[in-house]
TrEMBL record:
Residues 13-22 have a biased composition (Polar residues). This is glycine dehydrogenase (aminomethyl-transferring). GO terms for cellular component: cytosol; glycine cleavage complex. It comes from Caenispirillum salinarum AK4. Residues 1-22, 40-66 are annotated as: Disordered. Keywords: Oxidoreductase, Pyridoxal phosphate. It catalyses: N(6)-[(R)-lipoyl]-L-lysyl-[glycine-cleavage complex H protein] + glycine + H(+) = N(6)-[(R)-S(8)-aminomethyldihydrolipoyl]-L-lysyl-[glycine-cleavage complex H protein] + CO2. One of its GO terms (molecular function) is glycine binding. Residues 171-299 form the Aminotransferase class V domain. The glycine cleavage system catalyzes the degradation of glycine. The P protein binds the alpha-amino group of glycine through its pyridoxal phosphate cofactor; CO(2) is released and the remaining methylamine moiety is then transferred to the lipoamide cofactor of the H protein.
Length: 522
């Protein structure tokens, strides 16, 4: 409940025409603590047995209630069921978040991840008891290497930014091994925010490289910035404007000639998997978001996985652990002193995490790859790009594309179409919620004013996209009608909760429920 809201208003919802606050079968749901009935319980517990000398807690007695709400079992079940019905996810409808690849996750992959031989393994088991799991990790690694053309892959990074960290640590280790003390990392303006953050976390100074008028890296500016102090160039390709960096080979060559290495952010790999060999672009390291590109559901904090493919220059420095095949079976190399590590000429920079990677995500990803096959993965990329260009073609006359020409996996628009309407990108996106769609990514990338970034993914049908297009076109026309400023400013109108004071909510969030009597006493 937002700070300052009257509990009765919260029960009845915003401007509800009903006494209960319910709107048909959309039932208004208070916090579970507001449903508390002291003394009520969903279970019957026997009284504590009498013990010699009084209680069994050494005289420590409760001074007040535990603070857990008292409800019957039906009330508990209904509460959490109703909450689940208020959640919006990829299984509910179209989820066009740009740069996030929120696509359908085949249930076959979920079924395989739940097989007892995969779901019940423990990282402390002896390796002889998890040979199948180690083989799966190695098989998945082989798929990733074959798809990218890269000779090595670090499997343990837990997510995208973690994979970036692995790649940059490998770059630092490689430079240190050749006695090359470089201190600067170059990052394009349109990079993901984690790119400069990762470079800074590794100890580098960050310098920004501008984009050209076509929304891509200004190659001349990059070449001017290269020098003996530059350790690496971090680039996202396709970039966050949804555009393929056409000069990628030239960029890599220029960096290598200057003694720098190239890190490519793989967050948008869904647009090019099966179509582009990363090694052919001259890249030295790239993380791959298995949770975006290869099926695992994500959002709300996880789960994720960010394997990082490495070039010949970085392969010796790949982090521990890694799997090798020996005569006795599959072996997990956990320590640099392991003969298998020294024998392969590897000098790992260390470990990325306590265990061996996100195994459940590995299972889903390999299931996805093997069920799709190489041709299916290529088609997924083709369809993702087709869907994005379909949105671009159908919306370009009512929205304002940020850059000319075809796009890759996402369509990027700016807010010029809202000029002089009094309607902002935020207003427009909130109104889209009333139409039954999760809003697109707003105000990102930062290089585009009032950005609206839409990624339809390959799993959305033309019928779904047509309904979305119809809604967006109608809202754009309504915004330009000159009579709907108040409508947009108050949107969404049909949700269980209306628009909050977002600045106040971000700066002074109410994260803990306080009982009314406690508030009164205070």
């Amino acid at each position: 409940m937002p700070e300052g809201m009257n509990p009765m208003d919260a029960m009845q919802g915003a401007n509800s025409p009903t006494v209960t606050g319910n709107k048909g079968l959309q039932v208004e749901e208070p916090l579970i603590f507001e449903m508390d009935s002291p003394g009520k319980s969903a279970v019957d517990l026997p009284p504590a047995p009498e013990t010699a000398g009084g209680d069994r807690l050494g005289g420590l007695k409760r001074k007040g209630r535990v603070g857990l709400p008292g409800l019957s079992e039906p009330e508990v079940v209904r509460h959490y069921t109703r909450l689940s019905q208020k959640n919006y996810g990829i299984d509910t409808g179209f989820f066009p978040l740009g740069s996030c690849t929120m696509k359908h996750n085949p249930r076959l992959n979920e079924k395989l991840a739940r097989l007892s031989g995969f779901s019940d393994v423990h990282p402390f088991q002896p390796t002889k008891t998890v040979q199948g799991a180690l083989e799966l990790i190695d098989t998945l690694a082989d798929w990733l290497k074959r798809m990218t053309g890269m000779p090595a892959v670090a499997m343990s990074p837990a997510a995208g930014a973690h994979g970036e960290l692995a790649g940059m640590l490998a770059i630092r280790a490689a430079l240190e091994a050749r006695g090359d003390a470089r201190s600067i990392v170059l990052v394009p303006e349109s990079a993901h925010g984690t790119n400069p953050a990762t470079a800074a976390a590794v100890g580098y100074k960050v310098r920004s490289i501008p984009a050209n008028d076509a929304g891509r890296v200004d190659v001349d500016a990059l070449k001017d910035a290269l020098g003996p102090d530059v350790a690496a160039f971090m680039i996202t390709n396709p970039n966050t404007c949804g555009l393929f960096e056409r000069d990628m080979v030239e960029i890599s060559a220029a960096c290598h000639e200057a003694g720098a290495l190239v890190y490519m952010d793989g967050a948008n790999y869904n647009a090019i998997m099966g179509r582009v060999k990363i090694a052919d672009l001259g890249v030295d390291a790239m993380h791959i978001n298995l949770h975006k590109t290869f099926s695992t559901p994500h959002g709300g904090g996880g789960p994720g996985s960010g394997p990082t493919v490495l070039s010949d220059a970085l392969a010796p420095f790949a982090p521990l652990p890694f799997v090798v095949k020996q005569d006795s079976g599959w072996h997990l190399v956990e320590h640099e002193a392991d003969p298998a590590c020294k024998g392969a000429g590897k000098t790992p920079f260390g470990r990325m995490k306590g265990y061996h990677g996100q195994f459940g995500v590995f299972v889903r990803a390999l299931s996805y790859m093997m069920s799709m096959g190489g041709d299916g993965l290529r088609q997924a990329s083709d369809d993702a790009v087709l869907n994005a260009n379909y949105l671009m073609a159908k919306l370009s006359d009512v929205l304002t594309p940020s850059f000319e020409g075809p796009t890759m996996h996402e369509a990027l628009f700016d807010d010029r179409f809202l000029k002089d309407t009094g309607v902002s990108t935020l207003d427009f996106s909130k109104a889209l919620i009333d139409e039954g769609f999760h809003p697109m990514t707003m105000y990102f990338p930062l290089v585009v004013h009032g950005a609206l970034l839409m990624e339809p993914t390959e799993t959305e049908s033309r019928q779904t996209l047509d309904v979305f297009i119809t809604a967006v076109r109608a809202l754009a026309e309504k915004a330009r009608s000159g009579q709907a400023k108040e409508y947009f400013a108050a949107a969404p109108h049909l949700t269980p909760r209306r628009r909050l004071d977002e600045t106040r909510a971000a700066r002074k969030p109410v994260l803990r429920w306080t009982a009314p009597e406690a508030t009164a006493d205070a």
